[in-house]
Amino acid sequence: MKEEILSVGIDIGTSTTQLVFSSILIENTASDFSVPRIEIKEKKIIYESKIYFTPLINYETIDAARVRAIIENEYEKAGLSPGQISTGAVIITGETARKENASSVLESLAGLAGEFVVATAGPDLEAIIAGKGAGTERLSRDEGCVAANLDIGGGTTNVAVFKDGEVIDTACLDIGGRLLRLSKNTQVVEYIAPKIKKLAEGARISIRENQSVTVGTAEAVCAEMTKTLEEVLGLAPKSKALEMMLTGRDLRRSYAIDYITFSGGVADHIYNPGDGEIFKFDDIGILLGKAIRKSSIPQRIKMKKPYETIRATVVGAGAHTVEISGSTITYTKKCFPLKNIPILKASHEDGPEITERLAESISQKLELYDLQSGGQQVALALKGVKNPAFSQLVTIAESIIRGMGKHLGTQEYLIIVVENDMAKALGQTLYSKLRGEKHVVCIDGISVENGDYIDIGKPLGDGRVVPVVIKTLIFNF
């Protein structure tokens, strides 16, 4: 059994807006007499839009109508409709995510992105998606190494570090090519981001809006921005400037980086530093790329060119956001898609005291959510047991119900996400124990953590699996 699903990636960045459509092939790889095992077998891009400058009304407001017009036009060019799209992501990235109407822009695009498309702007997830789209995740897996990708756009630099194909660290800095904008004809500064002003002042660089700037001064600003990138990678001592430029937590720097890749709009000027017009795009993106190329970064860490540069995020959003659940799942009601469900992960459960420990763990974790007022839907995550005996299934089901306690009544569904292959039997046992009074969604083959959010799409493969997107917003180590 093979099934093709279509995915869309829409990236609305500080500098550019673009879209890709991808085809994702899923297939049952088990024999006719075995339990189905449905896997993603192939991902390929079937259409890429042109790259547009992100339309803004002013520095604080996205032009939602023009963004929607761009997306509608590209759907038409691709010969596709929103109803044909099964999965994907709409990502508002970088500085654009902080614009006053960013959330309303996402809402305006909801009807253009199918029923099960993630809309998010979390910098950690953005970094991971860009790293996957660039091919850095694959590089770390193929080489058995640690590889870092710096996705440098117009407003932010998103850093993702991969080891053997797994994400181990992320960070985001306010460093980008359009944080200082000027007229290429007059070289008069039209906009300086607040943090860039402070960075320049700290380095005693004189630069002001509505005043002309020399190439040398712009280069000096780019050099200061590059220093913070050297610091975040552990190539120079950490300074207060780095603390200021970080948008959240710092990298841990407890590992050695074997390879580095660059993606985003600035990346092309790192790998291909041409001698053309320096302020061609009315910003400092070209100079920033040159400054990074001259820095200690490519001298001290092996630099590789990724599969994608400026398209890394949109390719990642279109082809790398979705996972497929295990093939033994339970759902007692077709309630899909389920979106933005927070994960509540119980402590590891095994051994003879599983009943008491699991129930207590669930009860304690429930206190993290105010389920009494508003009844927020959550998904309970468990590691589960490999090849469980029937008595173990009953014990786990009873522990879940007892741990949920009075909170069970506030939940529209009992949603269980299990890592090990046991969801069908566990879901059926739960439904039986609840006497059919509460609908159950129980899926397996998915690993999540507290702090994650999960989206579950409409069943695929004759109802045997569901597409899943895990939105990891924060990494804790």
UniProtKB/TrEMBL annotation:
It comes from Lutispora saccharofermentans. InterPro entries: ATPase_NBD, EutA, FtsA/MreB. It comes from the Bacteria. This is Ethanolamine ammonia-lyase reactivating factor EutA. PANTHER family: CELL DIVISION PROTEIN FTSA-RELATED, ETHANOLAMINE AMMONIA-LYASE REACTIVASE EUTA.
